[in-house]
């Protein structure tokens, strides 16, 4: 389960908490056998696999690696509504070199939206200062 850190303010204290990037989802890499499926489904809190009729569908490695790159490098991001339309782009140079996603303009700022299509969740990273090219 990918996590990010954020400060939360309560009336009496402020704490650094770790929050899921995609609440309600856990990613697993398993060999698809009835025994492995059953073991995952018996895990407390797990209700089903995401896919057609509860049969899990693989998320492409490139999408998982893009999310990992953003989190490992500490790049600021915002949760973003899933996009199914728009131009795919790739960042060239800098700490996000090679990262692919959909380019979007929001309030005058350009963002690269990295999507996990299967669960229809996305992250938006500001691309100001990066060189962006069509993918």
Question: What can be said about this structure in brief?
Answer:
This protein is mainly β and 135 residues long.
Helices and strands in order, then pairings?
Elements: E1 3-9, E2 14-20, H1 34-41, E3 51-52, E4 55-56, H2 61-72, E5 78-80, E6 88-92, E7 100-106, E8 109-116, E9 121-126, E10 131-134
Antiparallel strand pairs: 1-2, 3-4, 5-9, 6-7, 6-10, 7-8, 8-9
Give an account of the 3D structure.
The model has no long low-confidence stretch (mean pLDDT 83). The chain has helices at 34-41, 61-72; strands at residues 3-9, 14-20, 51-52, 55-56, 78-80, 88-92, 100-106, 109-116, 121-126, 131-134. Helix content is 15%, strand content 38%. By secondary structure, it is mainly β. It has one domain. The longest helix is centred in the middle third of the chain and has 12 residues, at 61-72. The strands form three sheets. Strands 5-9-8-7-6-10 form a six-stranded antiparallel sheet. The protein has a two-stranded antiparallel sheet with strand order 1-2.
Cα-to-Cα separation, first versus last residue = 28 Å
How many strand segments? 10
Which percent range describes the beta-strand content? 35-45%
Largest sheet: 6 strands, antiparallel
Please tag this protein with its features:
single chain, mainly beta, 135 residues, 2 helices, 6-stranded antiparallel sheet, two-stranded antiparallel sheet
């Amino acid at each position: 389960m990918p996590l990010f850190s954020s400060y939360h303010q309560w009336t009496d204290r402020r704490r650094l908490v770790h929050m899921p990037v995609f609440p309600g989802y856990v990613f697993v890499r398993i060999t698809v056998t009835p025994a492995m499926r059953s073991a995952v489904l018996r895990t407390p809190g797990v209700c089903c696999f995401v896919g057609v009729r509860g049969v899990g569908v693989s998320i492409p490695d490139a999408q998982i690696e893009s999310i990992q790159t953003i989190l490992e490098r500490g790049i600021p991001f915002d949760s973003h509504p899933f996009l199914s339309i728009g131009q795919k782009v790739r960042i060239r140079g800098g700490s996000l070199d090679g990262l692919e996603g959909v380019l979007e303009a929001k309030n005058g700022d350009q963002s690269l939206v990295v999507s996990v299509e299967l669960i229809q969740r996305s992250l938006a990273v500001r691309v100001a200062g990066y060189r962006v090219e069509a993918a």
